[in-house]
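Would you kindly consider the sequence and fold I have copied below?
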Amino acid sequence: MTCFLDPHETDPAHKYKSAYCPIRAPYGACLAHSPDGFHWTPYNDGYPVTHRAADTINSLLWDQEAHAYRLYTRTDFGPGFGGRPENRGTRDMINPDLKADPTAWKTVRNWSFDPEGRGEYKRCQAHHLVGWIYQGIHFGLLCSYEWVGRYSYPGPEVMNFYLLTTRGDEMWDLGWVDAQKPLISRGQQGSFDSVWVQIGRSIVTTQEGHWIYYVGSKERHDGSREYAIGLATLRLDGLVSLTAKDEPGNLMTRPFKLVGSQLEINVDAKNGQVQLEILDANGMPIPGFSHSEAAMIKGVDQLQLKPTWKSYTDVASLKNKIVRLKFRFSNARLYAFQVRP
């Protein structure tokens, strides 16, 4: 079961919503609502709102941009019986008004690692995926069921956790899975999370960073397992970065309308330096914000660094203008920038 506080809901009785799997077949996803997170009433009279299969982790969230609910469940692409392993996959569905019709789900993504039937499911399967929307980007928190070192089941299987990205209803970018780069690495042999890393419903964001709660185990899928809860952390907006090492790097943004007066940079340059020049829409330096007038900032590691220039400490004079930002940095990681009022 997963639950969330619905930011879209106006009815107090439906303030919290949950997605869960019934304890007996048919194993479709079930939904419920609650006024307080403790006392629950099922939708659809307790019957599943989807077809099979949804017997791993099901998650539900509100997508403000699409103005619809999104439901993420497991699904099947293979028989799973008669001596063959299941070809597990995931599906993402949308429903603009689950209270009016909790069964009116439209599938927008339905996929596995083996779309062409080449037997890839014998090496890697999508055990389950939960959704997380942050700053307008859709993230898939994917738990991948993998047989390490062998191409047949059963093998020395592990559960790895990867981050996927997309926008709207486009197919997920599986780049980190293809590169075999889990977001949270499994622990050393014998540690509580040496075999199994399973993410929670979402990533918790604070003013300081992102907290990622997960379940870890040192036992295989087909045995009796002991679990423990782990916590991994990331700097705020530190999911990815652009890095310049010994040689200076330059980054120029696309043109955009500067709608605020305070510009902030999320950067780690404690052993390096960073400088910000502001250009017009055609890429020409704006007087007062050019390379020669921009302060070179050294030895900093800040989430909200405010760049300065010889005659300016903010960008209020450029408000509502079309600009491009040009970063120059070395021995530094640039994570993000934002414009505030």
